[in-house]
Amino acid sequence: MPGDSVNRLVARLEQWRDRFGSGEVRRLEKLLDSCARHQFTDLSSLIRFHETLLFLRAFPQSPGVVARAEKLLNSFHRRIEALQSRDVDLAPLDTFELSGIAGTTMEDTLSFDVLRWLVRHIPRNVEILWDQYEEERAMAATWPRFFPLLEEDAYVEANIPWRRWLSTASGGSRPLPWLIRQFERSPYSPREKTELYDSLRLPVSWKLENLKISRTRNWAHPPAIHYHRTPLTVRGEVDLQTELARPSPVLKRLSLVQGRVVMDRIREVMLVRYRELYGTTLGDPRSVVRANVGRGVVIHLWSLPPDRRLPLRAYLASFTLKNGVPINYIEAIGLCEWIEVGFNTFYTFRKGETAWIYAQALRCLCAHTRAKCISVYPYQLGQNNDEALESGAFWFYRKLGFRSGLPELRSLTEREEQRIRKNRCYKSPLRVLKQLAQGHMFYELPGSDRGAWDRFSVRNLGLRVNRKMAEQFGGDGTRFRKVCAMTVSRALGWRSANTSSEEERAFEDWALVLSQIPGLAGWTRQDKSDLVKMIRAKAGTSERYYLRLTQHHARLRRELLRLGSSL
Predict the structure, then answer these.
(1) What is the mean pLDDT of residues 492-512?
(2) What is the pTM of this model?
(3) Which residue from 36, 97, 199, 537 lies 20 to 30 Å from 170 (Cα-Cα)?
(4) Which is nearest to 337 in space by CA: 448, 461, 462?
């Protein structure tokens, strides 16, 4: 079919995907049948076709649409291979928006935790990109740990045959998996192994072929599919206050085996999109919970294992399946009743009930954490984030009821809203959106202390601690940590005997902040006891329990707000 005819066919398909009713659905199914019979010689049209198929698989109107979309997606790699055979440039597919299509090859410098997961799952498809690697100093500093007598070559010689060393030591078969095993077997802690490997900055490639981990085929069959018989819910139809007032969703804790399946799934989802999030890479499979919130939407949430947790805040990550298709990921980091939420819907699905699904994600987060103050950080709004600026992220949150934390930004928001009311065609210019993105936005639930967290930042706590270290200890971090731990230990009556290494690390981290509180030793016995219990919970099996304890320590909350709301 000529290129212009294919373009028209895809345009019709895009048009009819948003139409509903029996007659429209039959036309859509016929369009899918027509597309199945045609070859695509134009990469742009093929990309549009691919994204439309994924959208239809997530938001289908009928069983016939699902069946046709799945059949076309399962064989989509052949269309990519056909273009490759014609020497069509596939470089446009190697972007954040379009990466991960079946039949393509991806390239990146992956972290140790992601790469070893990938090597375990598709060892024959992953290889080192030697032609793109020039970090010989890093190899000379690291590899002698694993290669006997490599020092003789690495420390003094030029033009070292690194590939030959690796091939020889590994027996010539699958050298990258062998190298990863050496890091795994090393005597270092998990954090140290990650830091050591990451210092290499080793570029790798992996072939997706027709694997299920590809974005094209990374969907599953849920017990039941929700079919859309009426137009999708748009932002103007979503009242966040009403949604959050609904009964809390049921959060079902998954078994360890089920949790591992979820962790594998989210790593697949992120890997093929060139994304890596702390919690999706290092999530604890023992902590996974699942909520079925209706309309084919299932939300999973989990936390971090004790040895990978943040010093102060509790961490949650999440992702959403729509009819078995992954459509977004979420990061939430909280302290007391305040929780900071990052929400990212994948490009393909941004016209698919995003506001309603976001509301359901917040319902789950609030039910799980009992948070009362939801915060959106500036990057999510557009600070140093062109994608968020272009999508009008600030107004997405504002129209859901969020407000700016800074008075000057609230005034600017009011002026912009007046302009919009006077002129419905008015859109905030880019320079104004950049201004609006310079501060956090907040949504407070009933019963919250309005405005209490407006100027709070964990960064302020960290900078305050570091300033004291510089002023009073000459920047000696080791001595500073030791003195803080001794001071707070005396004040609280902390006993190091019979404590785990994670509990001791949690205590030392908290001691850095607690040492900034005047009169800590004079706190009541109950306040001190509750504080010790909270610190131990930081290293316990459930970080959710730790977060609940921070919510019930009113005196600590007051001090955190005082220390973290200014410098």
Answers:
(1) 92
(2) 0.93
(3) 199
(4) 448
